[in-house]
Each structure stands twice: as C-alpha cells, then as structure tokens.
Design brief:
Layout lengths: L2 H10 L6 H11 L4 E4 L6 H14 L3 E6 L2 H14 L5 E4 L15 E5 H9 L8 E6 L10 H14 L3 E6 L5 H8 L2 E4 L6 E8 L2 E4 L4 E3 L7 H11 L4 E4 L3 H16 L5 H12 L7 H11 L2 E4 L5 H12 L5 E4 L13 E4 L3 E4 L2 E4 L2 H8 L10 E7 L3 H12 L13 H13 L6 H9 L2 H6 L2 H17 L3 E3 L3 E3 L1 H9 L3 H12 L5 H9 L15 H10 L18 H15 L4 H8 L3 H24 L3 H16 L16 H9 L5 H5 L3 H8 L1 H10 L6 H22 L1
Parallel strand pairs: 1-6, 1-7, 2-4, 2-5, 3-4, 5-6, 8-17, 11-13, 11-14, 12-13, 14-17
Antiparallel strand pairs: 8-9, 9-10, 15-16, 18-19
Helix pairs in contact: 2-3, 5-6, 9-11, 10-11, 10-12, 15-18, 15-19, 19-25, 20-25, 21-23, 25-26, 29-30, 29-31
C-alpha cells in the first residue's frame, strides 16, 4: 500500500478508500493533474489530502483554495487536527500582502481572492509549491469565476505544479479536464443514498416512483413535514431564497420545534452566546437568540460570522433541530441533515422572479443524509399547487445540472486581470498575452482567442490612457498600475480615486460617496418606493457635499439612490449611531453591515495608499483617519480609546463622556470611576493594558462602586 494512502486511512480510521477516492488515488499519487466531479459528501476532501501529503513528502508546499473564509477555516482546522506534524496556516485576510510568513509553513489554506492577491505580490515562497487544490471549481461559472480561471491558468503555465480541481457533479467536467490537461474522475457515488422528491398535500412523490405520506398533525405541508421529521428524532435543513423568508419561516416554526427540544439548558447557553456576539445586541440578534432557545435557527449572510458558527456547531451537536437557511449554506460549510426541504425554487433577479439553476438545487439536496448516522437522506421540494408537482419533479428532481461556462470574456474581468498580468512581470509582450489567454478555460470552450485578444487590446489602450501602463513594443505597468494590482482594486476604482486625490474634498459625505461609487461595494442596498422621498430630501440637504451633480440633465446614474443610501449607512456608522438604529432605519442586517464596513475600510486604505504614491500627504492622512473610523465605527475623538482590547464603539463613548478621553487620561483615572462606567473586571483589564497597578484599597473601592451602580440600576428596573 502506498504510504500516503496508509497514512490517510489511519488518521481517518478508515479500512479502505471509497470508490471516488480509489479512482482518483492512482492519478493523484503519480503527480498528474486531476479533476474530480462527484456529489456533496462523496469524500473529495480525502483526495485533496492525498495530493497535499504527496507534495509534502517530496519537500514541497501545498496550497488549498476555496470560495469562502468559513470553508477555508473548516478545512484548515480539520487538516491541522488530522496531521499535526505538519505546519499548517490559514491565509484569508489582508489583500495588500505577500504573506511572507507563509514560507515557514507546509500547507496554506486560503480563498480564491487571497491566493490571487498573493500571486500579484509575487510571493517568493510560491516557487516551493508542489500542488494547488482548488475546491468548488464549478464556481468558475459564477462572478468569481474569472479569478479562479486566472489562478489556474497561472499555475498551469508554471508546469511544475500539480493541479487538483474538485467539483460538484457537472455535465461538462470533461471540458475542465481538457483545459487543465488533467485526468478526469466522474462519479455519482454517495456514502448515503439520496432520495429526492416533491411534497404536496402531505404526500411526497419520490424519484424512485414511491409515494410517502407525511404523518404530521398539521394541514400545512411545511409544518407537517417538520413534525414528521422531528417525530423520527431527525434534523432538518430548510432552504429559502431570501434572508427575510429564512427569518419568517424560522419564527413560524418556533412553537412546532419547541415541543421536540431535548436540551433546553444547552440551547439557552447557545442563545446567550448569540446575544453576546456583538458589543450591543441588535433586534436580529435577539430574534435569533429567541428562535435558538426553541430549537430552530435562521442562517444567512446577515448574521455575523460568530453567530453562524454558533448555529452550525449547535446543529452538529443535535441541540438545534431545524435550520432555515439561504442557499449560501449549501455551497459553504459541511452541515448535513437527514432531511432537506427546499421551500422555494424562485428568487427575484434583474427581470423579476427567476427559477434557480438545477445545479443550485442539487447542491442543496446534496446536504441530505448524514454519513455514519443515516442509511439514506431525503431532499424534498415544496410544491405550492397540484400543477407544480410534475413541473418541479421533471425539471429539478429528474433534471441534469447545467454546464459551467467561462466568465473571463467580460470587459470588467479582462480589465482587472490584464492589469494584474502586466503588473507581475517586468514587461509583457503581445506573444505572452496570446500565450496566456490561449491557455484559459475560455479558449478551450470557445476556441476564439482572437476575439478575447481584441478585447484585451481595447483594455490595454484604456489602461495606457489612464496611466496604469506604458505601451511600446511591450506593455509595462507604471507604479500606479503595479500599486493598483497589489491593492486588489478594479482599475476603474483606482481611476476614480486618482480623480478624487487630485481634487480632494475632505468632508465625510464626499469621501464616503467616493468609496461607495465603486464596483467593490456592489451589490448596493435596495431602495423601496417608500424610502425614495426621504433619500431625495437628504440628498438635497447634502447637495453641496455629494461629489456628483444629480440635477444635471446629463446625470444618468440609475443607481444613485442605492449609492446614496449606502453612503448614509456608512455616515451613520462613523458617527456612532447605534447599530440597531442603523439596521432598522436602513433595513440592513448586522452581517451585511459588517461586509459593507469591511469593504469600505479596505477601499479607504487603498485610496490612502494611492495618495501616498502620488505624494498627496494631506489626502493620505485624511484617508488613514477615515479608514480607522470606518473600522471602529467612531468619531475621530475616540480613535485613541478603541485601540484598547475590549473597548468597542459603545464602551469608548462611555469612557469619553466620563472624562477618560485618551490613554493618558486612562492611566490617571480613578479606578472606582472606571468600575462604575465599565464594570470592575473590564476596568482592571484596561488599567493593566496601560501599565497601571491597582492597590488593595483601590480594588475595594472598585467593588463598592460597581455594587452601588448595580443597586441604582435595580431601583430603576423594579
């Protein structure tokens, strides 16, 4: 037996490889490129482990890349647990870094964009990589597809790096294999048999021709299906298409699921942790905590990552019985259940309600059935009427997933990645560009390299016109072009920033609108008809500060109100409006607000870096302050205090209002006063951070002050 296979089997406690792993092992262990196309939970991760271990035993590094931070973290933790003898790292953060520290690690887990960023920075340790594993490679058909395609093309042209691409079941996996010059492993094998069907009037029509009666007491199909599942002592995943639907369905199921809860004390503990996930709980936090206390949870991008992790862990432990999620969960972490119910197969798109792709349904269905616990899993679509039953059955249950297609041919993708190609080489010739694009998935699928090269020619002309490259016989990136590529921002965004830097406006509104008016902060929040009058009124009030003339007859930005709404959200955030008030006023959720804040902070940093490059120090200083304010959600006067561990925007404001306005004030503050403001435990920790020792008498006064404060609070709340 190959020593790598032996090690994998021993660490997992397996006696043999499964059919998917066996079929791939021969190719992986001989160093060939491999594409594995198989269902969810078919053991593709073990194939990746074999490839990684082979590279490590040859003295090489391994890179594992996937679409989500949460997924990268999950794979990182699992590999580290199974193979502690290897130095394993997680790289998912700062895009403006080559992560030089990674040279000291054997295996690096990362996201697509972070790996692309590392390639742009020309990290020296990349020359030591022997294998790159690309998980969820079918995502090449998504908006992020061009990034996956460019990453793989770069490694493909290196020649010395083994490529292992893991995909869901797709009909044209052979095209991926042809592109990557790889061996192809296609399998329908699953460790747990999957039964798919359609539910209507408490009856499920399954794909094997069988019919099952749902034994729940309710006449409502959804409720009856939940009751039937919980009566069997099983768990259920419900997929809805929107965040609001996920929340409303979870609320609706609370009284039903509550009857089946087995461990209320465990759920209370999880519920309390969910409330404490933010410095100050929001209404959504309270809603989720209430649901979890009754054994049901909603799960979507609007939750902060800590809350999602708590829900996932409690579901895995069997404490939460039902999770109502948006489809992002199906493409993310490993969270199987005996049953999956697809609540709807339509969502709102650019042209009204659209049916979801079969591939997306199959990914959701693939979560049904828990290996080692269930002998089969059941995935069921909820039909709204009799006429839908056959339609859903034929299109989704019996349907084939769609082919995946290259998205590299769009001008936006070509602009972004062509600049990166020129910025990572001293110069780029026409021949080199032709060679690169001839080796893309686009070229394999369409065989029309000339068309894409014509588009690239237009992109290069635009880059030259705007100062990102110089063109002679070859294309050479300017300092602006190189820095833009390293900062991982679209050249259009960089041009907008350069325009701002040359004619800066230092007001908060002008600065924030400049950040918002970029591709990186899309999709923008939606604007309802009811919101429009107030948004226009506020736009009139701030007219002199908004850096666009929205009254001009030439103005045709149909997204202006969406951008303006996001500008106001960020403006409220940096001016310390309570988070719950922001969420209610602008109808956003904590997780979405966090995503906007994170991206806006990055853009503020990028604008500052371009200011530094252009030697505009005043703009750089302002951008630096604004980036910090966006990060912490505070006014400038609190920036000193929020640097302290354990001090967020709420606590910092309390300290400031109590007269503790900076670290110097903190060091000389009365410990009893601090205890009244933030509690004795936090007060002691803050004083420790500034090197202040507390005497015994001071500690006694702190306890008394905290007790006095609690007594006053009790009087007001009785």
């Amino acid at each position: 037996m190959d020593p790598v296979v032996d090690l994998v089997l021993r660490r997992h406690g397996f006696t043999s490889l499964n059919p998917v792993q066996s079929a791939a092992a021969e190719y992986v262990l001989s160093g060939k490129n491999v594409v594995v196309s198989s269902p969810t939970a078919s053991g593709k991760t073990v194939v990746a482990e074999m490839a990684v271990l082979r590279a490590l035993k040859q003295g090489k590094k391994a890179v594992y890349t996937c679409p989500l931070r949460a997924l990268a973290s999950e794979h990182y933790a699992e590999f580290k647990r199974l193979y502690p003898e290897y130095r394993t790292a997680l790289s998912v953060g700062d895009f403006d870094s080559a992560d030089a520290w990674a040279k000291d690690y054997d295996v690096i887990f990362t996201t697509y964009e972070k790996l692309d960023s590392i390639l742009r920075h020309g990290a020296p340790w990349l020359s030591d990589v022997g294998v790159v594993v690309v998980d969820e490679v079918h995502e090449i058909d998504s908006e992020r597809g061009p990034t996956i395609e460019v990453i793989l093309t770069r490694f493909l042209l290196r020649g010395s790096v083994q490529i292992v691409a893991l995909s869901a079941t797709i009909p044209n996996a052979h095209e991926l294999a042809q592109w990557l010059r790889a061996e192809l492993v296609v399998s329908e094998w699953r460790p747990v048999k999957l039964r798919e069907g359609v539910l209507h009037r408490k009856t499920v029509l399954f794909s094997d021709g069988s019919v099952a009666e749902i034994k729940g007491s309710s006449d409502d199909d959804l409720v009856a299906f939940v009751e039937d599942t919980l009566e069997r002592n099983k768990q259920l995943l419900v997929f809805t298409m929107t965040r609001k639907n996920a929340e409303s369905v979870a609320r609706r199921l609370r009284p039903v699921v509550s009857r089946y809860v087995r461990s209320r004390s465990a759920l209370r503990r999880v519920s309390e942790k969910i409330l404490r996930a933010l410095e100050s709980p929001t209404s959504q936090c309270r809603e989720l905590a209430s649901c979890v206390a009754d054994g049901v949870a909603f799960h979507h991008a609007g939750l902060v990552s800590r809350q999602r992790e708590l829900v996932e862990d409690a579901f895995r432990k069997g404490e939460i019985l039902v999770v109502v999620a948006t489809p992002t969960l199906a493409a993310g972490v490993n969270l199987p259940a005996f049953r999956v119910l697809v609540h709807s197969v339509k969502r709102y798109g650019g042209y009204g309600y659209e049916a979801i792709p079969v591939r997306e349904y199959k990914q959701m269905a693939g979560r049904a059935g828990r290996p080692r616990y269930d002998d089969h899993g059941e995935a069921v679509i909820l039909a709204r009427d009799e006429g839908q039953v056959q339609e859903l059955f034929e299109h989704y249950v019996m349907g084939e997933p769609e082919n995946v297609y290259s998205r590299l041919g769009t001008e936006t993708a070509l602009r972004f990645h062509t600049l990166a190609l020129t910025a990572t080489a001293p110069s780029v010739s026409q021949d080199l560009l032709q060679r690169f694009f001839s080796n893309t998935f686009y070229a394999v699928q369409y065989g029309d390299v000339d068309t894409v090269l014509q588009r690239v020619e237009g992109v290069v002309a635009w880059l030259e016109e705007n100062g990102f490259v110089k063109v002679d016989s070859k294309v050479v990136a300017t300092d602006l072009g190189k820095r833009t590529a390293q900062l991982y921002i679209d050249p259009f965004t960089a041009k907008s920033f350069v325009d701002y830097i040359k004619k800066p406006r230092f007001g908060e509104i002008a600065f924030l609108y400049t950040l918002v008016d970029t591709v990186e902060l899309r999709p923008y929040p939606s604007v309802s008809r009811g919101e429009e009058p107030q948004l226009w009124q506020l736009a009139e009030e701030f007219r002199d500060e908004i850096p666009v003339d929205f009254h001009s007859w030439e103005f045709d930005d149909y997204l202006f109100l969406n951008k303006w709404k996001l500008t106001l959200i960020l403006h409220a955030w940096v001016n310390e409006v309570h988070e719950d008030d922001i969420l209610k006023q602008y109808d956003v959720s904590p997780g979405i607000l966090r995503a906007y804040v994170t991206n806006a902070e990055w853009l503020a940093y990028a604008l500052g870096e371009l200011s530094k490059l252009l030697e505009e120090k005043r703009v750089w200083r302002y951008a630096d302050i604004m980036a910090k304010r966006i990060h912490f959600g505070v006014k400038e006067e609190l920036l000193d205090l929020v640097q302290l561990k354990g001090v967020g925007r709420v606590r910092a404001r309390k300290l400031y209002n109590a007269g503790v306005r900076n670290l110097h004030d903190l060091k000389g503050a009365d410990p009893a006063l601090l205890a009244e403001v933030v509690g004795p435990k936090v007060a002691k920790e803050l004083l420790r951070q500034v090197g202040r020792r507390i005497t015994g008498s001071e500690e006694e006064r702190m306890r008394s002050a905290a007790l006095r404060d609690q007594t006053t609070l009790d009087m007001f709340t009785e």
